C-alpha cells in the first residue's frame, strides 16, 4: 500500500508569519514509517519526493502516484534509498539488492518494478528520496566502505561529525539527486554549523539514531530570520533553497541529507557566520 501527500513551496516573507503549528504542518514529515506501507511526500521544492517504506510480513511494491501522471514511478524519475533499520532487500525488475543498515541504493530512470522486503526476521526501514531525471543511469549499491568520507568539526564546539557521501557525483553518476549521511560523534550535538544556504538546490533532512526521549531542534529560515522545529527519532524536514538547515540535539544522532536542484557541486554553498545568525 502506498500513501502520498502533497506540499507546496513557500515564499520566505510568508514563512516569517508562520506559527509553530504552521511550520510543522508545512515542513515537518513525521510518522514516515508505518507498518506494511510506503509513505511518500511530494514537495514542489525541486519536486523532490521524501518517503519511507516499512515492509513487515510481505513485500511492498513502489506504486506510481497521481502527482506523477506516469504509468510507473520511475518513468521520469531517479530514486535514492538508504536502509536505516535491519536487514532488507530491494528487488528491481527481478534483480535483488540486499541492504544492511546504513547501506544505500541508487535506481535510475526507466526501471519499472521496485519492491521492498525485510529479511531474516529483521525490520528494515527504507528511507527514500526521489527527483526528476532526464537520463537513465545504472542502478548501483553503495556501502559505507565505498562512500567518500569527510571528517568535520571540533569537540570544542560540540560539532565533530563524520560525513558519508553515498549517492553523490564523486561516487556515482546521477541526474540531480545527491544523498549522504552525517554521523555525530558522542558528545557532539550540532550539525551543519557554521550554517549555510545554497539557492541552487533544496534539501531534506532525516534524523535517526536518536535516543528515546531525546529530540533535535532543526533550524530553518533566512539567516537573519530563523525559525526552529523540534523533531523526534525518524522525523524528516523539508528545507527550502532560501533556508539554512542546521540543528542541535539533546544527544548525538545521525541524519541523512538529500538534495535536488540546479547543480551537484557539494561545495557550492553560501556560508553564514555563526555570530551573524538572528
UniProtKB/TrEMBL annotation:
Cofactor: Zn(2+)
Keyword Metal-binding listed: yes
Keywords of the record: Isomerase, Metal-binding, Zinc
Catalysis performed (reactions): 5-dehydro-4-deoxy-D-glucuronate = 3-deoxy-D-glycero-2,5-hexodiulosonate
Pathway connected to this protein: Glycan metabolism; pectin degradation; 2-dehydro-3-deoxy-D-gluconate from pectin: step 4/5
Cofactor binding description: Binds 1 zinc ion per subunit.
UniProt cross-references to Pfam families, sorted A to Z: KduI
Free-text function comment from the UniProt entry: Catalyzes the isomerization of 5-dehydro-4-deoxy-D-glucuronate to 3-deoxy-D-glycero-2,5-hexodiulosonate.
Similarity comment: family membership: Belongs to the KduI family.
HAMAP family: KduI (MF_00687)
Protein name (record): 4-deoxy-L-threo-5-hexosulose-uronate ketol-isomerase
Gene symbol of the encoding locus: kduI
Amino acid at each position: 500500500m502506498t500513501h502520498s501527500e502533497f506540499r507546496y513551496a513557500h515564499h520566505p516573507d510568508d514563512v516569517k508569519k508562520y506559527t509553530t503549528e504552521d511550520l510543522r504542518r508545512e515542513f515537518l514529515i513525521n510518522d514516515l514509517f508505518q507498518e506494511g506501507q510506503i509513505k511518500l511526500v511530494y514537495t514542489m521544492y525541486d519536486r523532490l519526493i521524501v518517503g519511507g517504506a516499512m515492509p513487515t510480513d510481505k513485500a511492498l511494491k513502489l506504486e506510481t502516484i497521481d502527482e506523477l501522471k506516469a504509468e510507473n514511478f520511475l518513468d521520469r524519475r531517479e530514486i535514492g534509498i538508504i536502509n536505516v533499520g535491519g536487514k532488507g532487500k530491494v528487488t528491481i525488475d527481478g534483480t535483488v539488492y540486499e541492504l544492511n543498515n546504513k547501506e544505500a541504493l541508487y535506481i535510475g530512470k526507466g526501471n519499472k518494478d521496485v519492491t521492498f522486503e525485510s529479511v531474516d526476521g529483521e525490520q528494515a526501514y527504507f528511507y527514500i528520496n526521489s527527483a526528476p531525471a532526464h537520463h537513465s543511469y545504472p542502478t548501483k549499491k553503495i556501502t559505507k566502505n565505498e562512500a567518500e568520507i569527510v571528517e568535520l568539526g571540533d569537540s570544542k564546539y560540540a560539532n565533530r561529525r563524520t560525513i558519508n557521501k553515498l549517492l553523490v557525483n564523486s561516487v556515482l553518476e546521477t541526474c540531480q539527486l545527491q544523498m549522504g549521511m552525517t554521523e555525530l560523534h558522542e558528545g557532539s550535538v550540532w550539525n551543519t554549523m557554521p550554517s549555510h544556504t545554497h539557492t541552487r538546490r533544496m534539501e531534506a533532512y532525516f534524523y535517526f539514531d536518536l535516543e528515546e526521549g531525546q529530540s533535535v531542534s532543526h533550524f530553518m529560515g533566512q539567516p537573519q530570520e530563523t525559525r526552529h522545529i523540534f523533531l523526534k527519532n525518524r522525523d524528516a524536514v523539508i528545507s527550502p533553497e532560501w533556508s539554512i538547515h542546521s540543528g542541535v540535539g539533546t544527544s548525538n544522532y545521525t541524519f541523512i541529507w538529500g538534495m535536488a536542484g540546479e547543480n551537484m557541486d557539494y561545495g557550492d554553498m553560501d556560508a553564514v557566520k555563526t555570530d551573524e545568525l538572528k
